[in-house]
Amino acid sequence: MPKSTYYSGLQKKQQSSRKSASEELLEEIEQIFIEDGQLYNGAQLYEILKMRGFQGSLRKVQRVLKKAREAQLEEVPEPIVNVGFETTKANEKWVINISYVPTWHQGWTYMASIIDVHTKKITGFSFDQLVSEDLMVMAIKKAYDQFPMPSVLYTSLQPAFIEHCKEACKEKELLLPPIVFKEYLYDDECLQAIVPFLTGSENRLRRGHASIR
C-alpha cells in the first residue's frame, strides 16, 4: 500500500473520531440546556461540563458552540429571513428575544424583550442576571398588562428553552399565541432603544446621583 494512501486513510479516521467527539459534546450541551431550562455562555458551560467529568478545554467547548451556530445560520437562507413579517395593524405580530446588557453595578445582565413588528415599539421587557423561563414570563406578562395578545409570536431562541417558557406561562395562567421559530433581522431594536436609558442611569449611579432599586 502506498504511504500516501495509508496516511490519507489515517487522517480521515482521525477526523471522523474528532467529529464524533464533537457531536457527543454538542449533545451533552443540548441536554444541559433542556435539564436546566436556561442558556449559558461558553465559560459557564465549561464549568458545568467539568463537574460532569469533561476532560477537554474551554477552547474546545467554544469551538463546538461556534460550529453549531454557524450550522444553524447555514440552515436558514438569508433572503427569506424577514419574509412573513408583513403586518396591517399593531399587536398583530410580536417578536421575543434575549439580549446581553452590560451594567456597572451588576456586571452582565440579560434582557428579554418583545417588539411589535408593525410599530417597531417595545411592548414588554424584563431584566435579570440569569437567563431562565421566568425572565421570558415577566416580559410577556408586562406586555399583556398593556396590550392584547398578538395573533403570532416569533422567536429565534432554542425550541427546548421555549418549551420551558410555555410550561412556566401555563403555570401562571398566561395564554400564548402560536409560536413560530424564525429569525427576525430587527429583533435587536429593543436593545438599541433602551441602552441609552441604561447608560444614563449607570452614569448617574457612578456619580452618586441615583440609587440602585
Overall description:
By secondary structure, this protein is of the alpha/beta class. It folds into 2 domains: 10-75; 93-206, Ribonuclease H-like superfamily/Ribonuclease H (Nucleotidyltransferase, domain 5, 2-Layer Sandwich). The protein contains 6 helices and 5 strands, in the order H-H-H-E-E-E-H-E-H-E-H. It has helices at residues 3-36, 42-51, 58-75, 133-146, 159-171, 189-206; strands at 93-103, 107-116, 122-128, 152-155, 179-181. It has a 5-stranded mixed β-sheet with strand order 3-2-1-4-5. Strand 2 and strand 3 form a beta hairpin. Helix 1 (3-36) packs across helix 3 (58-75), helix 2 (42-51) crosses helix 3 (58-75) and helix 4 (133-146) crosses helix 5 (159-171). It is elongated, with a radius of gyration of 21 Å.
Average pLDDT rating? 75
Spatial strand arrangement across the major sheet: 3-2-1-4-5
The percent of residues in helical segments reads: 40-55%
Q: Which topology of the largest domain does CATH recognise?
A: Nucleotidyltransferase, domain 5
The number of domains = 2
Structure, briefly:
This protein is α/β, with parallel strands linked by helices. It has six helices and five strands; from the N terminus they run H-H-H-E-E-E-H-E-H-E-H. The C terminus is likely disordered.
